[in-house]
Amino acid sequence: xxxxxxxxxxxxxxxxxxxxxxxxxxxxxxxxxxxxxxxxxxxxxxxxxxxxxxxxxxxxxxxxxxxxxxxxxx
Length: 74
Prior knowledge:
The chain is of the alpha+beta class and about 70 residues long. It has one domain: Double Stranded RNA Binding Domain, CATH 3.30.160. Helices cover about 30% and strands about 40% of the residues. The chain is built from two helices and five strands. It has helices at about 1-10, 15-25, and strands spanning about 30-35, 40, 45-55, 55-65, 70-74. The mean pLDDT is about 95.
């Protein structure tokens, strides 16, 4: 499923994985949100915004292609 692939690719990034572990140690449940209502087109590719949330705030936002091969930090 492309949605899960986009989230997994972001979760597996070294800096995000480390941050996720730290949040879990603190007792915080990190959340990953794919914003299908805000797709972007850049360089002829479609990107889905994937937001990383915890503690009630947005930590990072990435743009991920549906195939998961290209990730850009926004």
